[in-house]
Amino acid sequence: MDIQWYPGHMTKARRQLKDKLKMVDLVIEVLDARAPKSSLNPDFDDVFSNKTRFYILNKADLADENITKNWISYFREKGISAVSFSALRGNTQQLKKSIIDCAEGILQRYRDKGMNKTLRCMVAGIPNVGKSAILNRLSGEKKLKEGNKPGVTRSLQWAKIDQYLEIMDTPGLLWPKFKDQKTGAVVALIGSVKLDILDEESLAFYLIGLLKETAPRLLAERYQLSNLDRNDFEILEDICKARGFLLKGGVYDTERGAKTILDEFKNGKLGRISLEKPERC
C-alpha cells in the first residue's frame, strides 16, 4: 500500500510560508495527538531552523491520555515546549498562557529595547490536524474556515487573538514523499490525505492490524468480536457480520465495512486510541 499525496498548491504554500517567516516571532506546530511522530513534518526542521518552536498535540480527547503525557515529556526533554489540547473542549486561556510563556525570552528582548510589542506567531502542520479550529477557539469566533478533511485552508491568513497576540494560519503541508509505508498509512488514518486517492479496504486492514496491537479491547467491544486471533480480512468480515453489512447472496460488504471502521476511528467512536508511542516507551 503505497500512499503519496503532494498536490501542487503545497509547493506554492511552502514558498509563501518561508517568505513570511521574517514577520513572526514564534512558530506553533500542530500535531495529531494520536500520531505525533507521523504528523510531524520532517521538512519543518529545515524551514524553521532559526525560529523558536512550540508544539500543540491537538485532538488529545481522541488519544490515550497517558501516552499523550509521555509524548509531552518526550518533546520537552528534547528542548521543545509542548502541550496537549482539544480544539473541541480545551482550555483556551491556558493554551494562550502556554504560548506566551514559550515566547517569554523573545518578549523580554523587546522589553529590554523599550518595546511593548504584539507577539506574532505562525501556526503550521500537516493537513487536518486542527490548525484553523484552534485559532477560532483562541479568538472566540469562527474567523477561519475549518473542516474535518484535508485541504480546507489554501492561503495564509492572520487571526488577531487579542491586543498582544496575532497568529498567522497556513495551509496544511505534507512532504513530497513518505519515507516508509507505515508513515503514509498512519497519516491517511488520521485524515490528512484525501480519501479519493486511497484503497480504503487495504487501509482498513492496516488499521485493524494496528488496533489488535494498540487497543484490542476497544476494537473487540466496538464490534462485538469474540476472537481477534484471526487475519485482518476475517476480522473485517466479522465486523460486517456484526453490523449486518451484506450484499446479495450473503456476501459480506467489506467495502462498506472498511469505510465504517475508518470513519469511526477518525471520529473517535472506538474510544481514545494512540497509534504511536515515544521511542523510549
UniProtKB/TrEMBL annotation:
All copies of domain CP-type G, residue ranges: 14-176
A GO CC term attached to the entry: cytoplasm
A Pfam family hit: MMR_HSR1
Compartment(s) of residence: Cytoplasm
Main location: cytoplasm
GO BP terms in the entry: translation
SUPFAM superfamilies, alphabetized: P-loop containing nucleoside triphosphate hydrolases
Molecular function, one GO term: GTP binding
Keywords of the record: Cytoplasm, GTP-binding, Nucleotide-binding
Chain positions recorded as GTP binding sites: 58-61, 172
Role this protein plays: Required for a late step of 50S ribosomal subunit assembly. Has GTPase activity.
NCBIfam families, A to Z: GTPase_YlqF (TIGR03596)
Protein family membership: Belongs to the TRAFAC class YlqF/YawG GTPase family. MTG1 subfamily.
Protein name: Ribosome biogenesis GTPase A
Phylogenetic lineage: Bacteria, Bacillati, Bacillota, Clostridia, Christensenellales
